[in-house]
């Protein structure tokens, strides 16, 4: 129900979007996608605009994006700086 309400509020239809394994659908897009760089600089939770973009597949809560993959926050903290 929450997903449907967000879709209606954002004004987007998401019926055709299927996320790959390890990612979840966010009806308001990926503006707030947390990256490993955000985790390592303590920018979590990330400040997000109060607008919606088209729906997108993002990392689930507690995971951050690096090189197109979702990893746990703890894994981000162990990465060397060049891998951010």
From TrEMBL:
InterPro entries: Ser_inhib-like_sf (IPR036084), TIL_dom (IPR002919). GO terms for molecular function: serine-type endopeptidase inhibitor activity. Residues 19-76 form the TIL domain. Keywords: Protease inhibitor, Serine protease inhibitor, Signal. This is TIL domain-containing protein. Residues 1-15 form the signal peptide. It comes from Romanomermis culicivorax (Nematode worm).
